[in-house]
Model the fold of this input.
Amino acid sequence: MTEPENQSALSRRMFLIGLAGAAATFAFAPEKTAAQQSGPFEPTIWYGVDRDGIVTVNITRAEMGQHIGTAIARILADELEVEWSNVRISMVDTDPKWGVMSTGGSKSVWLDFPAYSRAGAAGRIALIEAGAKLLGVTPLHCIAHQGAVFAANKSISYGEIISRGEPTRKFMPDELAKLPIKPASERRLIGKKSEALDIPAKINGTARYGIDAAVAGMVYARPKIPPTRYGSVVLAVDDSGAKRIKGYLTSLVLEDPSKTVPGWVVVVATSYPAAIRAADLVKVDWSAGDARQISEQDILDYGAKQIAAPRGGALLVDDSEVDSAFRTAASTLERTYTTSSVLHAQLEPVNALAFERDGRFEIHTGSQAQSAILPVLAQALDLPQERIIMRTYPMGGAFGRRLNTDYAVPAALAAKALGKPVKLVLTRPDDMRFDSFRSPSIQTLRLAFNTQGKVTAMEHHASAGWPTGVYVAPANMPKTADGTPYDPFAIDGADHWYNVGAQRARALSNDLANTAFRPGYLRAVAPGWTNWAVETFMDEAARMAGADAVAFRIRLLDGAGRNAGSAPNAVGGAKRQAAVLNRAAEKAGWGAAMPVDTGLGVATTFGQTRSMPTWTACVARVRVDRSSGAVSVEKLTIVVDAGTLVHPDGALAQVEGGALWGLSMALYEGTEFHQGQVTDTNFDSYTPLRIGDAPELDIEFIENSEAPVGLGEPGTTVVAPAIGNAIFAAIGIRLRHLPIRPAAVLAAFASRKMSDVTDVP
Done:
């Protein structure tokens, strides 16, 4: 999934210079007394080396199947010069010394690479100095290699250095920021294949997820989900039927000062099966909130009115020549694109265990944004934040759902009310109804051409719910040039790398969506819909210009002006995006003759944000059944330039998973918000991609040593438009709504045939 831009920036600052209680984040520990010598050497808070030379790396990022601990540990281990077999990872609990704990937006490796590299380099320097002293030589005559310090024909292991002469050099944050790191040519671990460190525990069953958390004396709880996310009020509770269930204890009407779960009733029992059965029998009378009158089409209609209004919203890009370019254009193109609500539907339903012990409230759960939920918990429990700690667990899927760790609040409130540990677990229907799902969206794009057929201006207007702008960090959102705050997770992707002359990109906060439900971060967030619009529109523009779809894009990816790119993250700019597009087209056999009703479609994106572009291109090969409207994706050819690949196996898995998710949202996933609730609450009607429908994947990475960027989400952003464009190539119909259902294909095909008949003289 994704993290708010402001939190990412804060995390990076805290990580590099140790703000907010971690001013000495990378400082070496003070000299230890003889009684303390048995502990590991901890040159920074980010890792320790014990007397056997085992390195344990502290990981603050959330593990949700992406093996983030392996990637980060590999960065540090390469600079520290240790054997990979001697590296371990520790997923840490909340503590102010870690700074902001948040995982999303494909930013973990990008943010952590500088800090962990320099932390490893600092430890290597300290161990060389201490080792040189024990070897009786100067540090200049020593090198570190595979967990030992060498000088001529002598060597000493890290473990022996720590046992015999503990390193004492101290580095201040400003010194660490200046430490050089290895050139790419000298890396031994980064970019080399390896097994993820957490795989054995996941395979042998020893890994413990949040849903596995348990303590003595705990009771179980299941919620009764109110009819609307906000505004519902409990009028009466009838638990007479539940009293027949063995193990049923009570039904709690939660009082939530944080207003995270208004109108919640939690049913408590001695076992989870009993809690499930009892909850089904508890009857709650609610007064529903205003969202009971709101449905999906209302939200899209509201967005359409916003787009039609000449003012309002945030202008992310606003060149002064846009209006004049459209007034003088020889021709223009305008199209509107929409997407449905999309659920997270992660494998592990949300859950939390909460209890008070030794003067602190403990929350045991999987979370992508511990730092964001701690102040909410403090408000809900009426406790100082320092008295709350979140214990870290890996997650059985997250995809942005666990950036909103809202499910921890009812568990904590129930535990406080009962005075005992409460384990809250949502069933699948509970989880889907309580999901902070991806908002439906509506976008209108316009393009202007001059008399020579050159693109001279482009507008992009996007309306959707804003996940950051309402509930997470509205006060800290970035601002446009005129000072208007905006949510990057509702517009990223619209500020593309094409040279389209004068450009305007406008983000509109759909207030109807924001008040009807809680818009959430879902894998790729805005680029999942903005790129659907941009890349479908580029195909339509190429057709209008009478140009090949690939050639048309490459002409616009000229790297001119602000699209030239800059160091350190976007070196090469649009030229690198053109390169992945060229390569994907070449690999896929672009331009070759296709069988009947089969077509190739292309799309290219830059992943998440302009500040961290992951250049990506996809060619989809698609076959359409005209009789049923079914779309079969036969092959996805994807080329990615993500700079340095720290953990290649993990990188491949990320792109594979992202691409399949993109395919799932293109053809299968999507629900409808209706009168305050989503219409799909289980996998009988909400049908993600099945394994039998998974296509052949041909994925290639462009090798280089540029800055490492994100990989969790870019693969998701490029697939849907490639599929839509392939459908047009196969049977000549243009679809502008996601997901693409067979009924929509048949309707569009019938409409086209009717149009053909109507057009006959």
About this structure: The chain has a mean pLDDT of 93. The chain has three domains: 5-189, 213-290+350-425, 312-341+437-753. The longest helix spans residues 108-135.
